[in-house]
Amino acid sequence: MISVVILISGRGSNLLSLLNAVDSGSIPARIVGVLANRPAAQGLQTAAARGVPTCVVDHRQFAEREDFDAALAAAIDRFVPDLVVLAGFMRILGNAFVHHFENRLINIHPSLLPAFPGLHTHRRALAEGVRIHGCSVHFVTADLDHGPLIVQAAVPVLDDDDEATLAARVLAQEHRIYPLAVRWFCEGRLRLLDGRVLLQAPQAGDAALIAPQLVAG
Ligand code: GRF
What we know:
By secondary structure, the protein is of the alpha/beta class. It has one domain (about 1-200): 3-Layer(aba) Sandwich (Rossmann fold), CATH 3.40.50. The chain is built from 6 helices and 10 strands. The chain has an 8-stranded mixed sheet with strand order 3-2-1-4-5-6-7-10, covered by helices on one side. Helix 1 packs parallel to helix 6 (about 165-185). It starts with a strand and ends in a 7-residue tail after the last strand. Bound molecules: 5-O-phosphono-beta-D-ribofuranosylamine. 5-O-phosphono-beta-D-ribofuranosylamine binds next to helix 1, strand 5 and helix 6. 5-O-phosphono-beta-D-ribofuranosylamine binds near residues 14 and 87.
């Protein structure tokens, strides 16, 4: 059974969707630990309530970014994970960290990458007037919010959207595609080739692009 560690910084709604998917049997894995860089991260309570061990590596205790990264990597390694999942983890991780977890470190980002890397993606999508927006799960590389894409979901941007309504529409899809990506990883079906992800043995219903509806959902 694949062991998964999840890193969070706050609310933890993606964490919850992953915990639910494991509990329902749709992800063949064990979530062995949840780590946060903030002691107040709400998701820590969610994990603890499910009996998942938690740990805090507070970035404010470290003067140098590299020292934080090293302490975080050591804390993760104690759980001996096969996969490390960034679920709303709001710290930039350095090259050494990324290299240490190469090909077993994934992230979810609230945009259709490579559009809108970085912060405030929904605000920027609205400002650009794009008609389509969404979210992406990708392998993490040293390049911020880049890296081989595993699955994306697209949603429409509606004329009366504000940041909150658009964020909610995207988040509903995040809760759908992250469990899917983790399931594929755990099933050993993600092959990396020349910086792209190939889904092995696709089954009926598998799609690396989810486009649920063209009207509000
Ligand atoms: C999500 O929108 C995720 O894509 C982004 O941060 C948010 C975290 O939300 N990186 P939650 O903590 O999973 O509820």
